[in-house]
Amino acid sequence: MTRKKWAESAKQFKRLVALKEDYALLGPFLRGALFESGDRKGAKEACDKGLPWAHKQCHEIPLEEIESVLRDLKSEF
Predict the structure, then answer these.
(1) DSSP letter at 59?
(2) CA nearest neighbour of 57 among 11, 26, 34, 33
(3) What contacts 28, CB < 8 A, 6 or more positions away?
(4) pLDDT on residue 76
(5) pLDDT value of position 33
(6) The pLDDT value given to residue 55
(7) SS3 of 77, please?
(8) Distance (Å, rounded) from C-alpha 60 to C-alpha 3?
(9) pLDDT-derived band at 8, boundaries 50, 70, 90
(10) Cα–Cα 20 to 30 A to 19, which of 9, 12, 54, 67?
(11) How far separated are the first and last CA of the chain, in Å rounded?
């Protein structure tokens, strides 16, 4: 998928997250789309915002995805 398509996907996921911020399973999709679109800052902000929800709800999948994105972000520097 192209960066442009990832950016379009991120835009849609942002809308969904705005409607249901506490739905931790949406976060991995948003973070992944932001990361793949090249919006590293947005991906980091989404991780920072989603991490407390994932911990609070004890969701392993979002936690693993957040950790994966954070690792990828750190490996770029």
Answers:
(1) -
(2) 26
(3) 50, 61, 62, 65, 66
(4) 61
(5) 93
(6) 77
(7) coil
(8) 28
(9) very high
(10) 67
(11) 24
Contacts of 59 (CB under 8 A, 6+ apart): 24, 25, 53
Question: Which residue type does 29 have?
Answer: F
pTM of the predicted structure, to 2 decimals: 0.77
Q: Which CB contacts under 8 angstroms, 24+ apart, belong to 42-47?
A: 42/10, 43/69, 43/73, 44/70, 44/73, 46/17, 47/73
Which amino acid is present at 24? A
- Residue entry with tokens 């979002």: 62
Do 68 and 75 contact (CB within 8 A), yes or no? no
Do 31 and 8 form a contact (C-beta atoms < 8 A)? no
pLDDT tens, position by position, 12-35: 999 998 898 777 778 888 888 999
Structural domains of the chain in order of their starting residue, each with its CATH number:
3-75 (1.25.40.10)
Mean per-residue pLDDT over the chain, rounded: 85
